[in-house]
């Protein structure tokens, strides 16, 4: 029985749910499987198949997408389970932080780094960091102060200072999946790279802020507390990034040196998956940011490791990583939808409909204000710094960036459970915070997500010709030296054309030192017996 409980816990099943099914005639003759686990997995896999089919049928629909479809199916499935069990429980699976952070989130973040268009991403890297880090901190402060001031007037008075700060971090975590499903990397590459990059950095920043709040000693707060927070964040930022880069380079070096494709393409593909996942686990083991680590590991693997494998493995890895990410995203929205009808939490909250609506409305209003408080000011400050009109962020783009950050998702719910669902704090107001968070996530995803596609089409006029700022500046350093009078120094070029200059020197360093050691485009070893070897031979001819 202990083995059954441990296996069920991995899937978020509680011992209480298990015992309610022990009498079913479908009991399996096995020491490690039980009926509840099989039923739960069958339901979720069936729902995943339904999401894929319905998503395909609604591909051209203006008001629906796969995220909303999965969420609504999860809600419907939860309602059916609630009716079948006569109001006892609405879920087959309980929301498990381990399931989310260890199994579902890593493939999504890794694929984001693996598929990202690196040139555009790093061209806007400073802007992404401003919105993703500085903007998230502003949102965190506004939401925390707003909650501290308004909740007491509503009647929610038992929350501590740590709870108010935690709510600020929880509600600062955005979910821009709905917006990214509508935006196109080809039609609006600048806007896509900003929204995409900010979403990844925002999740990492929110989790770091949340963990920092948990470590603070609120009985001894002094002037150094803020400096400690900043120091901790910078440490996590640089060490997590360095770890991801190191693991990515190690995978590239191993595959380039040993070249597994000579004997088995399965081994090189398996090594890429395992080392990518290993980077995330190492970061979590070292109390770093696993999101940043696996994201930059994906970027490095796509730049070096992917070019060192055989042609068949390149096709396999590209589609396999995208498929795993897609399934994990769909599973998360199903998970959140079914968890939205957690009848036990609603009963524990003991709050009236008016109180629940007031708390949820307050949280969402603070999300709106906190988002606007940094998107528009930072964008306009950047516009003042930019010299070229084509490089400025226009108001329509600012509005889409603001809208893209209004949706909240599974990270928000996971952090909320972490803060308020522990056995040591079984209180009505803790349950109220969880149910209010669920309401904000459902409302923002379904309502805001459903109007995202028509809104973007109306605001951005999707079929227009892309603006000049959407393209990458392809002017070479040699062209700049000719255009500038006299012998232009590297420092002058760095000041006048920073993006092009940094990119030029990075390419020189990459071609001279990095690619000969770690492989990459143009440095794949020639093996005549493999498809890659034949391709290299034909391309060099």
Automatic annotation (TrEMBL):
One of its GO terms (cellular component) is plasma membrane. It catalyses: K(+)(in) + H(+)(out) = K(+)(out) + H(+)(in); Na(+)(in) + H(+)(out) = Na(+)(out) + H(+)(in). One of its GO terms (biological process) is regulation of intracellular pH. The keyword Transmembrane applies. The lineage of its organism: Eukaryota, Viridiplantae, Streptophyta, Embryophyta, Tracheophyta. Pfam families: Na_H_Exchanger. Belongs to the monovalent cation:proton antiporter 1 (CPA1) transporter (TC 2.A.36) family. The chain crosses the membrane at residues 38-58, 70-87, 99-116, 128-151, 233-255, 267-283, 319-338, 358-379, 400-420, 432-456. It is a multi-pass membrane protein. One of its GO terms (molecular function) is potassium:proton antiporter activity. It comes from Populus tomentosa. Residues 55-457 form the Cation/H+ exchanger transmembrane domain. It is found in: Membrane. This is Sodium/hydrogen exchanger.
């Amino acid at each position: 029985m202990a083995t059954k409980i441990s296996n069920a816990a991995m899937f978020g099943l509680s011992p209480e749910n298990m015992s309610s099914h022990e009498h079913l005639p479908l009991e399996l003759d096995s020491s490690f499987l039980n009926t509840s686990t099989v039923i739960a997995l069958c339901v979720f896999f069936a729902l995943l198949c339904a999401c894929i089919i319905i998503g395909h049928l609604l591909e051209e629909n203006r008001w629906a997408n796969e995220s909303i479809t999965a969420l609504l199916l999860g809600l419907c499935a939860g309602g059916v389970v609630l009716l079948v069990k006569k109001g006892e429980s609405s879920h087959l699976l309980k929301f498990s932080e381990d399931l989310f952070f260890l199994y579902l989130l890593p493939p999504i973040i890794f694929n984001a780094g693996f598929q990202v268009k690196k040139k555009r991403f790093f061209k806007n890297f400073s802007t992404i960091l401003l919105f993703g880090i500085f903007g998230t901190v502003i949102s965190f402060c506004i939401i925390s102060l707003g909650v501290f001031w308004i909740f007491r007037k509503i009647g929610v008075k038992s929350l501590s200072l740590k709870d108010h700060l935690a709510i600020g971090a929880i509600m600062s975590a955005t979910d821009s999946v709905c917006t990214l499903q509508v935006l196109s990397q080809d039609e609006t590459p600048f806007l896509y790279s900003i929204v995409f990059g900010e979403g990844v950095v925002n999740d990492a920043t929110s989790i770091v802020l949340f963990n920092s709040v948990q470590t603070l000693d609120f009985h001894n707060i002094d002037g150094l507390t803020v400096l400690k927070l900043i120091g901790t964040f910078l440490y996590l930022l640089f060490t997590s990034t360095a770890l991801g880069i190191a693991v990515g380079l190690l995978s590239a070096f191993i595959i380039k040196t040993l070249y597994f494709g000579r004997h088995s393409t399965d081994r090189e593909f398996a090594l890429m998956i395992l080392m990518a996942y290993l980077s995330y686990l190492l970061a979590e083991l070292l109390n770093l940011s696993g999101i940043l680590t696996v994201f930059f590991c994906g970027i490095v693997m796509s730049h070096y490791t992917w070019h060192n494998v055989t042609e068949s493995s390149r096709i396999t890895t590209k589609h396999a990583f995208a498929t795993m990410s897609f399934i994990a995203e769909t599973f998360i929205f199903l998970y959140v939808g079914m968890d939205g009808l957690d009848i036990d939490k609603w009963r524990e909250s003991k709050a009236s409909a008016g109180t629940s609506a007031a708390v949820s409305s307050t949280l969402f209003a603070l999300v709106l204000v906190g988002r606007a408080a940094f998107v528009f000011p930072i964008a306009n400050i950047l516009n003042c710094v930019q010299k070229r009109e084509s490089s400025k962020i226009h108001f329509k783009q600012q509005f889409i960036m603001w809208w893209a950050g209004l949706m909240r998702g599974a990270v928000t719910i996971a952090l909320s459970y972490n803060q308020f669902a522990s056995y040591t704090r079984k209180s009505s107001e803790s349950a109220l915070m969880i149910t209010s968070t669920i309401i904000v996530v459902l409302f923002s995803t379904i309502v805001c997500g459903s109007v995202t596609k028509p809104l973007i089409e109306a605001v951005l006029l999707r079929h227009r010709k892309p603006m000049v700022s959407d393209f990458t500046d392809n002017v070479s350093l040699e062209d700049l030296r000719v255009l500038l009078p006299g012998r232009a120094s590297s420092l002058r070029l760095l000041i006048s054309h920073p993006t092009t200059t940094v990119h030029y020197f990075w390419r020189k360093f990459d071609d001279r030192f990095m690619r000969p050691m770690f492989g990459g485009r143009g440095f794949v070893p020639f093996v005549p017996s493999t498809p890659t070897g034949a391709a290299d031979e034909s391309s060099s001819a």
